[in-house]
Specification:
Layout (H helix, E strand, L loop, with lengths): L1 H7 L1 H16 L4 H31 L3 H7 L1 H28 L9 H21 L4 H47 L4 H25 L15 E7 L6 H19 L5 E2 L2 E2 L2 E8 L18 E8 L10 H11 L8 E6 L10 E6 L3 H17 L9 E2 L5 E8 L1 H7 L3 H13 L1 E8 L2 E7 L3 H4 L2 H6 L1 E5 L6 E5 L4 E8 L5 E2 L2 E8 L8 H12 L8
Antiparallel strand pairs: 1-5, 1-6, 2-3, 4-5, 7-16, 8-16, 9-14, 10-11, 12-13, 15-16
């Protein structure tokens, strides 16, 4: 938008300046100068606008999330420049043909004095009594001062600059341009420019290959939050998750409260810290839409404002927390991350595997993770897979033939079991103007007891006799323990599994590490056919 605002007035300035030149130097009338002036520069400004827009079109063709973010730039510039061109050719031509003048009008002293007194009086009144509109009063006073500054000082300076200094620069520019376009010099300049372009490309490529230059689409932000994500295997009891979270919490607090960051009892780096277990403890980048997470915990430490940190780096503090938690809790996945600023860009190390068979995808992802780990590539924190098949579940198989004979549908069985575990709304309790929903379900002892769940009676009406009957759920349904996917993720309507990792402490150049992984993956031969 800032670039667009700068370009917005270019076409209009060119049009007005050309019409002014024809009226001043050739003595044409407003209408004639407008017709000729617009006709002379219409094609040049159209071509100029088209070439500028064409330069930004590739940004609109950028694929992926970055393309969705960057497409706003060519859309904004195309709209702004198109509007500028339309206004310059059609609106400006009408305005200059009616109101353009080459005479330098000098406001009479009496009129200038009256105008100044009016603006000063109203300016002070607005400043003292205008409340939130005091800025308008300040603007009126500024205009009144600049009115006299222009008349007494600036007008003479501007005239001197235009007639003396600017003319010298124009003559110097003309001399240099004529010299550059004469004889063999144009060929030398063009060839030298192209040669320097290729030299610059080569030097930049060499710098990237030597890792002297780092490539970042968005600059790495300093953490305002340090977030520790804790994950046990699916099906872990929330009490066990809470215990390990408390143990990790103590370890994290020992790092956060290091004497380096303490001034007595005051921590000038960390403002607050909070721990969560279960609901709300997931990573928003990988656990979208999943609220039931008794196997996950999260510790969030919020940093103080930069001005209170006494010059210390919060990224170094995050790396210290990350180092303190490496390899000391077997069986627990721990990742130490920071708050994400800017558009979502995912993890710095991210490998996506697509395919129709999710079992095969997970097996391939595990083989790929083991292969990369065997190469001992420095800079990788810990490779993880965003899905697994360890989520415990119970499969209920309904004897549809028997259920059909009794007139019981599969939905009745499912509803009965669901209501027993999650509850069914039985009414609303009102107290002091507040409404409270009342849900009825099994107590905690029976809620997780399969015998109680499947021996409960299901009530139905016998279709042949019309009588109300009751039978145990186990008479028409059997259950078995099974495991399922923790989640099923899609990208462009295709099933996908992701192997990802953060950077190890002390490493910042993700592109170099990704390049090493890509070179090693050329030797990976266990991809399914």
């Amino acid at each position: 938008l800032i670039m667009g605002l700068g370009m917005l007035v270019d076409n209009g300035i060119v049009v007005v300046e050309n019409v002014y030149r024809l009226m001043d130097e050739e003595g044409m009338s407003r209408v004639k100068a407008a017709k000729k002036g617009i006709g002379e520069i219409a094609y040049p400004i159209i071509i100029s606008t088209a070439t500028t827009v064409a330069a930004f079109i590739p940004l609109g063709l950028w694929p992926g999330i970055m393309g969705e973010f960057m497409i706003l730039l060519p859309i904004t510039l195309s709209t702004v420049l198109g509007s500028s061109l339309f206004v310059a050719i059609f609106f400006n031509s009408v305005l200059v043909s009616q109101f353009m003048s080459v005479k330098d009008f000098d406001i009479p002293f009496r009129k200038r004095l009256i105008t100044t007194v009016f603006m000063v009086v109203f300016g002070f009144l607005i400043i003292f009594f205008g409340g939130s509109y005091r800025g308008i009063g300040t603007l009126l006073l500024f205009i009144a001062v600049m009115l006299w500054m222009y008349r007494l000082v600036l007008k003479g300076w501007i005239k001197y600059f235009q007639t003396k200094i600017l003319s010298k620069f124009e003559n110097l520019y003309e001399k240099q341009l004529r010299g550059a376009l004469s004889g063999w010099r144009p060929y030398l300049i063009v060839s030298g420019t192209v040669l320097l372009l290729f030299i610059a490309f080569g030097a930049f490529g060499w710098s990237l290959a030597a890792q002297r230059t780092k490539v970042e689409f968005f600059p790495d932000n300093k953490p305002n939050q340090i977030i520790v994500y804790i994950e046990y295997p699916e099906g872990t009891d929330i009490e066990k998750t809470n215990q390990i979270t408390e143990a990790i919490e103590k370890k994290v607090y020992s790092v956060l409260n290091d004497p380096l960051y303490m001034d007595g009892d005051y921590n000038f780096m960390v403002e607050s810290a909070v721990s969560q277990v279960g609901e709300g403890a997931g990573n928003p980048q990988t656990d979208i839409g999943n609220n039931e997470m008794p196997h996950k915990g999260k510790i969030t430490a919020s940093m103080r404002e930069f001005k209170y940190r006494r010059g210390l780096d919060s990224e170094e503090l995050r790396q210290k927390v990350q180092s303190a938690l490496v390899g000391i809790y077997p069986g627990v996945l721990i990742s130490v991350e920071k708050n994400a600023d800017g558009p979502p860009v995912g993890h710095p190390i991210n490998i996506e595997i697509e395919g129709p068979d999710y079992d095969e995808l997970i097996v391939t992802a595990e083989k790929m993770r083991n292969f990369i780990n065997s190469k001992s590539i420095s800079g990788i924190d810990e490779l993880k897979i965003d899905v697994n098949k360890d989520k415990p579940s119970m499969q209920v198989a309904i004897d549809r033939k028997k259920a059909g004979e009794l007139g019981v549908s599969a939905s009745q069985v499912g509803t009965q079991l669901r209501n027993s575990i999650f509850g069914v709304k039985a009414g609303v309790y009102k107290e002091e103007g507040e409404d409270y929903d009342v849900y009825v379900r099994f107590n905690e002892e029976n809620r997780y007891n399969t015998s109680a769940l499947f021996n409960q009676k299901i009530t139905f009406r016998d279709q042949s006799s019309g009588k109300i009957k009751e039978i145990p759920v186990s008479a028409i349904a059997a259950h078995s323990n099974a495991s399922g996917f923790s989640s099923i993720k899609h990208k462009d309507a295709k099933r996908v599994a992701t192997v990802y990792s953060a950077l190890a402490p002390g490493y910042t150049d993700a592109s170099a590490i990704v390049g090493q992984i890509q070179n090693e993956m050329k030797n990976f031969s266990e991809l399914p056919k």
